[in-house]
Amino acid sequence: MKDVIFDHYQNAVSDSLLRHKSLLDIMTKLEESQAKINRSLAKSVTNCGCIEIKATKQHIPENKEPQADDYNKYFDTHLKGKLCDECRENIEDEIGNDLFYLASLCNLLDLNLYDILLKEYNQIATLGKYSMK
Question: What's the pTM value of the predicted model, to 2 decimals?
Answer without folding.
Answer: 0.83
